[in-house]
Specification:
This protein has 252 residues and is an alpha/beta fold. It contains 10 helices and 8 strands. Helices cover 38% and strands 15% of the residues. The model has no long low-confidence stretch (mean pLDDT 97). The structure holds 1,3-dihydroxyacetonephosphate (13P). The site of 1,3-dihydroxyacetonephosphate (13P) has 14 residues, from β8.
Length: 252
Amino acid sequence: MTERKKLVAGNWKMNGSRASANEIRAMIEGAEALRDRVEMAICPPAVLAGLAGELLSGAALGLGGQDCHAERAGAFTGDISAEMWADVGARYVLVGHSERRTAHGETSDMVNAKASAVLRAGLQPVICLGESLSERKAGATLSVISDQLERSTPIPDETAGIVIAYEPVWAIGTGLTPTLDQVAEAHGRLREALCDRLGDRGRGVRILYGGSVKPDNAAVLMSTPNVDGALVGGASLKAADFLAIARASVGL
Ligand code: 13P
């Protein structure tokens, strides 16, 4: 069986300030004890990237961006390139989060171009996808997420890593989570689609679950087949909760 080290990443969204440095320090300390067991990262807002990058240098807690532009540099007011994320020490960039697909009109083709840019910069794209509530109710979940995966995922070269994050839109920030059977079904389908696309390498790709992951549901969610970690929103803002999720993800 292919070993996939779990990845627990915190998406801070539009939250946090310079005062979050204390929380980051507590996360670094807790992550150190988990260094060999689980990979961890936080994705703070871009304005905190410099501060976070300095604090996280050499730490067992990695840095990630929440989005990037597909181009390297140029006249793109307000945007940030993947190369800029690499420059401040990031290892990951989230692309295609449902909040960006919905609020910023990002299509899977755009997400694919952004993910390619992240690979170009030598970082790992965390490609987010997931069905809406109406798609779930219409029984379209598996076809929607397979289609999003197919369109949003570039084919990386032999050495590069990509990560997929399955985040049902209706589970984000709502306190609702899919049943474990629904999670296993979705992740199983994504694994099949990855293997169709990448051959055996598809088995090495981590598929994270995201959507209302909390300390008290993390252990069961993370022990579901083909769940290789978590993308955590609200509960990643507090070191105690985020560390509890990371520990639960590896059965501690
Ligand atoms: P919540 O954990 O707050 O539901 O957010 C999930 C998410 O969108 C992570 O990207």
